[in-house]
Fold:
Amino acid sequence: MGTRIAGTPGAAGVAVGPVWRYVPGGVGESRMPDVAEHPGAVVRAAGEEAAGQLNALATRVRKLGREDEAGIFEAQAMMATDPELLDAAVARAEAGEEPVSAVRVAAEAAAATLAALPDELLAARAADVRDVGARIARILLGEDVALPDVPSIAIADDLPPSVAAEMPPGMLLGIALESGSVTAHAVILARGFGIPAVVAAKGLVGAARTAMSVAIDGATGEVVLDPDPGEVAQFRIRAATLAESRRAAVALRGGPCATADGERVALLANIGSPADTTRALEAGAEGVGLFRTEFLFMRRRTAPTEDEQVAAYRAALEAFGPDRPVVVRLADIGGEKALPYLNLPAEANPFLGVRAIRLAGAGSRELLLTQLRAVWRAAGLAGVTPHVMAPMVATLADVQLLLDLRDEARAGAAVTAAATGDPLPATMVTGVMVEVPSAAILAPELARMVDFFSIGTNDLTQYAMAADRGNPALAHLQDALHPAVLRLIGMVVAGAESAGITVAVCGELAGDPAGALVLVGLGVDELSADAGSLDGVRTALGAFTRAELADLAGRALAASDAESVRAMAGELLARQGSAASR
Amino acid sequence: MQVAELDIHNKSGLHARPAAMFVKTAAAFRSSVFVENLTRGSKPANAKSLLAVLGCGVEQGHRIRVSAEGEDEAAAIAAVRMLAEGGFGEAAAG
Structure:
């Protein structure tokens, strides 16, 4: 039996391999020549060499497309020759302090200043300064980090970004850290590389001092030092099972999402900015069921211009092309975030207040018109049919307002298009979000006015159960699988069917395999969720027939609470899991 | 001496890349350049030091005072002003 240490899951995956220990350097005396005569010059030269190494690293990782890491190394290069750090270290060395110690003390002082600021991002920069100090110290000591030459699992207290990035490709099988958090640089790197990581494994470094090999499971947080052959076999089986299920899920990406008896369910992605399109396309999304546009409106003093919005929408529409619709949701903004250009009075209950489509009646009609004009023009430039939906629709009058704004915006966009010679689509596929219970109740009437419904299960649940989404004391009232919410969804589906329009769900429930089974059973046509959830939903739906899902939905509607519905869906999913592993 | 008070609109304030751009711009001039965070009430810091600028903890919505003293002080202030007003090439939206 090997030594077992329990850590915290950092990045999923399983690895078995030799141990590579990283011990931060920088203790002892400088071995640089001339240090006795010109201690200050030696320290300055070491700082400049460190900056050169870091700039070279930045260039290397930028070529690999890792722009964020390149930015970190460039900042570290500036820190290595920063007057606050290097001048202080040089002064200390010239005053007679041992150069290695002078650098460490100066780096620690600079790091402590940053760490004391009330800002998490700057606290992370403090670790970067310490890492720079350690690098300069290593140069003074004439030390190199001995990088692994066989594929290994790194064991360390923490793995600084510079060391992790210098690792030759393919040499890092996994990472196990004694400290570190799930947001540590090394963990983010591990996720990017697709290798497992375990963090907060207490006692790891001490226990691993003489270990030759290690097995880690990044999903459970298990670390086994010097595993015996039985344990090695166990971890290898886990790794193989994981690889197999990932391969199976990925293999489904190219094909359509359907039930076991071939009934199609459109599977789309939710995106929050044009930058999310790559991930969504890679995950096999058939389009975008919810393009949140709030990113354009938040944290600024003036409303975004029409041209700025055209550029943002066009980028997303072009990425998906004419065969994959992108549903742009009109800005869901209101009084909970003070947007200076909205001029809204403070409200006691902003989620029940003037927001989204309601802004049109509160002096911000032009804001919605500008957004709609931008969507018309962006679709024309991208050569696609625009799809738009409005959030917070509660009444027939709200829908009429949306349709009027849409037509007025087209007239405005037509003037611009005529002037520029740009194309403009003739029609816009127009839908409403169903998230206010009144809209669910009025579904048959609303369905005759629009082209589609998209159910926002998070808000529908919050409003139906009168339970604030953000209040942890109300967790028992926040599960969208509650039969009361499911009955409302059933009403929406029936209303949509009576008018022959489609129903999508774009809330979190759509990305939850249990939720997806129930929703499709209720007759929902399209599911839209975060790109990371699509594999799981596609795999789950493919395991059951439409009749099995309808039976599940029927039992769910009659259940007494959300827990019972979860148990019913869980039972089906467990059956699918055991079938998959046979 | 030349002084300017500037509002920081871009979303990451004077962190990360904007901080580096700010420092590189200040360092391109012979004048000594100092920056202080008026919103947080920090002491004047060397604008040519990334660590000192990060230490001001300038976030989006903060107001800073930049002062320059030397032969090219007017040009230094103008360059920094242009950078801040352009949002450091970063969208104000988040």
